[in-house]
């Protein structure tokens, strides 16, 4: 059977929805691991590097593939951290996560093409199939072969129905925007411990607040009233996701306004590139900006210095932007 | 559990060493089952199939009996085969009291994937052949209820079994507990069809499959369950009870050769139907399935319905009048 992020088990009955809520924690890095990971800067930077690698290697593929590969990565990291982040090991992990995601998605790409793509590298590292197989076996074992990941995408349709928007154009618009937000927020370490259903609910609320502010209160009530959802968790998660969405707007504005020479471009985020409107039923808007290689290089350079914080100038600029936005209202 | 001191590279290296050792053992022992690294003691070969083998094993740590299915991996040029990853990952998500539990999965270097399942005393085939079929009407009803519960659960997840037959219905004898086994979810194993043909399990295959339809769905499992139901009552495969040239002829003799009226779409599916099969009048289920109460016979007729679109679903079957007097407490105690 086809594996689809929106319907990991192609549930047809409401009982199956209960089932998704019941077992989603099994497919999520646990809260304890999340807190432990947050305390380890090394692992956070390793995760960031791995995500960058996965995005880079799979940029020509369906963005859903990247999403699934990163999900496998996160669950793998939760199961066993990486204390010796050698470059070739990181690359092998990235390649193996993508390979497993490709196998689960049953993509239309011929496997040889995917393999050739994965083996291309600026470092010139080419892995033997046997090596990849061993890494795949290790990851499969760490994830206990539970590769049908339950992600926020598994819950979007449920919440849209709860908001009374099933089969309505408004529901589709919300779904598209929420999907964008879910894709972008995957990188955010602060979301690591939240359950997929909470992330889905928060992304939808964020999208509705942004697109349909007058209906937002009734949507909030519909989701808050659900017995499946913990209200406090949604509030906390919503704040993080709203931050991410604001940062996105900020970056987009900067991309549009400033030249590549301006120092504040170090704030650029690496966005997922999407070449198709429709990906497994999830529509991803083509408005996502793709950062230039130069900006990527700069960002990596900053990360390499170990200087992750914003400098005062950038901070002031951001405040200025927010202030301007507020004055417009 | 994640451990601050865990050395992933060391872990990888030790796993590599175990895999290498495994390979050496495999070579030395020739045909010996390759269970190195799985902490199992192999007791006997339970079954041979072209896809792999089945072993009865002892779990060294728990002392429990387990069943290990060893599947030969193909297309290793692409790492761990995708069909195996997809199938195992779905098996891992099937949680139901009436479905056999997949306990552990292990990979041996370049050759096998080992699936370790819980072990049950008997299968229904053995029960029927060696112990006389369950003549107790309550046992038949209890078994049917459990089988349908498992099938309804799988169908709610849009998982088909595809090969339901008595030997895939496992029995915990002391508890009268039923567990379905041997799911073949996507039918992706290369030898799947060959394997099925070899064991002659077409006795339980739905007519739409026997007609070579490629568009089938959950209804095929309900036909198989119906055949199992009949077999529990009469003590032999239903089709075997009918004098016939092949399974399809047997079905048509029993239920009548289909027409556009009884099975809409049949003339498109089998344009040469009446060239190969005479126009039989239905002998009727009641001719062969005696000793079944009227409501049971009614349910059976809804399962063994030629037209797949009119065949009863597992979910609906559980609500049929045949089960109205099922005592849920006795089901738990059985």
Automatic annotation (TrEMBL), chain A:
Keywords: Cell cycle, Cell division, Cyclin. PANTHER family: CYCLINS. This is B-like cyclin. Gene3D superfamilies: Cyclin-like (1.10.472.10). Pfam families: Cyclin_C, Cyclin_N. Interacts with the CDC2 protein kinase to form a serine/threonine kinase holoenzyme complex also known as maturation promoting factor (MPF). The cyclin subunit imparts substrate specificity to the complex. CDD domains: CYCLIN_AtCycD-like_rpt2 (cd20544). SMART domains: CYCLIN (SM00385), Cyclin_C (SM01332). Belongs to the cyclin family. Cyclin D subfamily. It comes from the Eukaryota. GO terms for biological process: cell division; G1/S transition of mitotic cell cycle. Residues 150-263 form the Cyclin C-terminal domain. One of its GO terms (molecular function) is cyclin-dependent protein serine/threonine kinase regulator activity. Residues 48-141 form the Cyclin-like domain. It comes from Glycine max (Soybean).
UniProtKB/TrEMBL annotation, chain B:
Residues 40-323 form the Protein kinase domain. GO terms for cellular component: cyclin-dependent protein kinase holoenzyme complex; cytoplasm; nucleus. The keyword Amino-acid biosynthesis does not apply. GO terms for molecular function: ATP binding; cyclin binding; cyclin-dependent protein serine/threonine kinase activity. Pfam families: Pkinase. SMART domains: S_TKc (SM00220). It comes from the Eukaryota. One of its GO terms (biological process) is cell division. Signal peptide: none annotated. Keywords: ATP-binding, Cell cycle, Cell division, Nucleotide-binding. PANTHER family: CELL DIVISION PROTEIN KINASE, CYCLIN-DEPENDENT KINASE. Belongs to the protein kinase superfamily. CMGC Ser/Thr protein kinase family. CDC2/CDKX subfamily. This is Cell division control protein 2-like 2 isoform A.
